[in-house]
């Protein structure tokens, strides 16, 4: 049985179709990502699946049950970290987490372990309103995980974290998934999705545009390879004549050669002893994302 089944899901606000006929499944134990620009419908989709909103139409099955009307039997089995979190006033980080733990009958010792796991042990006696944005984000994640749920929803969990904290959290999330839990993530970070997710759905204008593994999405783009030459070659025109070379550009980091036949280009560079210091850049999930959703600014 899939952990999540979404069929024909729609959410309309007047003429606005925030979610428009979305269907997908998430397997038990899968790490599933939803990517999309601002306003794509990611958060609304998650809130419907979590049972926080009633959809205009469509059906959701969560761990074999319907989350709406609000299904109390599902609450101990899922963990939810929202995009915007609110804490109890005047409580310290430890008191916040112990309060959440007590709602699920979790002992205080286990709550303290989660403070350690998210790197907040040294902030245990600090009031939540005095935490930095990144620290508050990590506390929110600990609150979502303190009862050891089998299905976890994370909405932009690393948005306010510095690179080191992001990487540490990736390790934590990977360990949760490795232990058999299902994780559903929304993120703006393409490297995060490539690193963590088994499959990703790219969403825009309320619809799932493409859904597959990150590697399959990248392969399907059929984008050219960019090779950056740290050392200038003697004859740029000769490089441009190599089979498969589409363009040659001067850049601060060196000469950037775009080619649809990188093997032929690399062979040419080897013959001319120009391989030292080169960088080979294939397509990434970010290229797929921009190809599907466009490059224009979003409000």
Automatic annotation (TrEMBL):
Keywords: Antibiotic resistance, ATP-binding, Nucleotide-binding, Transport. It is found in: Cell membrane. Its main location: membrane. Gene3D superfamilies: P-loop containing nucleotide triphosphate hydrolases. Belongs to the ABC transporter superfamily. SUPFAM superfamilies: P-loop containing nucleoside triphosphate hydrolases. This is ABC transporter ATP-binding protein. Residues 4-230 form the ABC transporter domain. It is a peripheral membrane protein. Pfam families: ABC_tran. GO terms for molecular function: ATP binding.
């Amino acid at each position: 049985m899939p952990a999540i089944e979404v069929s024909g899901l729609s959410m309309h606000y007047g003429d606005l179709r925030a979610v428009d006929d979305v269907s997908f499944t998430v397997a038990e134990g899968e790490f599933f990502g939803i990517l999309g620009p601002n306003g794509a419908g990611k958060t609304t989709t998650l809130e419907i699946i979590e049972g926080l909103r009633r959809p205009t139409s469509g059906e959701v099955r969560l761990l074999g049950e319907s989350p709406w009307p609000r299904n109390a039997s599902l609450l101990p089995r899922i963990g939810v970290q929202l995009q915007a979190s609110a804490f109890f006033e005047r409580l310290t980080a430890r008191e916040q987490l112990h309060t959440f733990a007590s709602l699920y009958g979790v002992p205080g010792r286990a709550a303290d372990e989660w403070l350690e796991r998210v790197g907040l042990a040294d902030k245990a006696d600090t009031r939540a309103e005095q935490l930095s944005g990144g620290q508050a984000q990590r506390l929110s994640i600990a609150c979502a995980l303190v009862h050891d749920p089998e299905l976890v929803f994370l909405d932009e969990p690393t948005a306010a974290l510095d690179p080191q904290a992001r990487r540490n959290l990736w390790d934590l999330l990977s360990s949760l998934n490795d232990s058999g839990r299902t994780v559903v993530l929304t993120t703006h970070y393409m490297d995060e999705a490539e690193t963590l997710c088994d499959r990703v759905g790219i969403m825009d204008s309320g619809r799932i545009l493409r859904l597959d593994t990150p590697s399959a999405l990248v392969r399907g783009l059929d984008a050219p390879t960019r090779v950056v030459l740290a050392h200038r070659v003697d004859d740029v025109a000769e490089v441009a004549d190599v089979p498969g070379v589409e363009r040659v550009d001067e850049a601060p980091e060196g000469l950037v050669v775009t080619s649809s036949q990188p093997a032929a280009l690399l062979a040419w560079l080897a013959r001319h002893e120009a391989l030292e210091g080169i960088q080979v850049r294939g397509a990434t999930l970010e290229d797929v994302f921009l190809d599907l959703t466009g490059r224009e600014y979003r409000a």
